[in-house]
User: What shape does this take?
Amino acid sequence: MINKIRFYSKLGYKLIKKEVISRDDYKEEYDKVSETYHYWLKEMGRYTDNIIHSKHIEVDKELKILDFACGTGYITKGLLNKSTEYKITSVDQSDKMLEKLLDRDNPRVTASQSDGIEFLKTTNERYDVIFFGWALSYFNHNELLKLFNSVLKPGGILGIITNVEGTLDKIESIFLNVMSEKQEEVIKPMDIKFNLPKGKKGLVRWCSKYGFKALEVEEGEVFFSFKEPEELLQWLNITGAAAGTRKIFKNYHEVKPLIIEKIKKEKYKNGVYEINHKFAYGIFRKE
Ligand SMILES: C[S@@+](CC[C@H](N)C(=O)[O-])C[C@H]1O[C@@H](n2cnc3c(N)ncnc32)[C@H](O)[C@@H]1O
Assistant: This one.
């Protein structure tokens, strides 16, 4: 008990001092994930299509579009296929993710390797549309939505798809328990809790605070099951779903057996190991 109290006060102290997984850590993590991110796209890209193909985004009009935290460019490529009229700026901080953006030589695409916040603060460009896929947890949403508002033209459109609270059920507590039991291995915690909205209602609340009106909004949940706990952990790592967690520890391989033991205990259901991805997406207009 005393050990737990000591652990949580140490954790709280690190969070206050902002000794947490940093932008550089996420960059390194996504540089690695770039080789396997297609596994995520194969299963989850179909949900991103809902915002790419929204009826609220005109097809036959020349639009300046920002694909923010574009990764390997799933949204960029979808937009290039959707219309020949779009001019797209694709920004990501991971050069390795950007390298996979095959259409970066396309004259209609400007690829930029940059921290997203720095980009938004320094760009003189004003956009008709911003797309933002699966990266909200890496940003402070208050800072980000304010900046989105400032780089969008009046009446501009914001398309978001994001994980929401309740996604990856029990994974956070599994990692916290491992950290508590292997305190000597912990370098720094992650700080993403405040950056996931509570479902589609939460997403609307966050966006409306910064001047965005919801035109359409939906939510969903999908489940993946695996025969072995090791496979579930591998899925979290290769897709980027648990990006950052490997950086918590001095030696990830030292703590991996304990993570697997906990997955075995917590995630077993009906003969398989199951993980959920809970998400919301929407199209918003700057009022
Ligand atoms: C889950 S991927 C999403 C990629 C893409 N939007 C998609 O829908 O497939 C998250 C992306 O956010 C990027 N990212 C995380 N933090 C960032 C930051 N501070 N600035 C720019 N990109 C960032 C990562 O490098 C990664 O490519």
Notes: The chain has one domain: 22-286. The chain has a mean pLDDT of 93.
